[in-house]
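Action item from last week, closing it out:
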Amino acid sequence: QVQLVESGGGLVQAGGSLRLSCTASGRTFSIYAIGWFRQVSGKDREFVASIAWNTGATYYEDSSVKDRFTISRDNGKNTVYLQMNSLKPEDTAVYYCAHKLRGGLGPSNFGSGGQGTQVTVST
């Protein structure tokens, strides 16, 4: 199995930046991709971005984040990052990462993910 732990969330003013981390442990050799998602209470989770574990190829789902958020990885640390710049109040959500074992970088077939980290963007 693969375990994922997110960190790096917090409270930031609009226009500010945060870097989230997702650290993997366990059977990391089986990971095909790591994805970042976000969820606002009462709404469905929203796919943000994903990265291929071995090649570093990336995929961003929503044009509203593609120019502000950057996903990257450090395989030596078994960690995937989400650098978030120019944050907006509508970015407020619980952010969590999930993994998949196969099947491309799109938002389908990811697992349920870790516990998440809260990001709050104030006006």
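Closing note: The CA atoms of residues 55 and 105 lie 11 Å apart.
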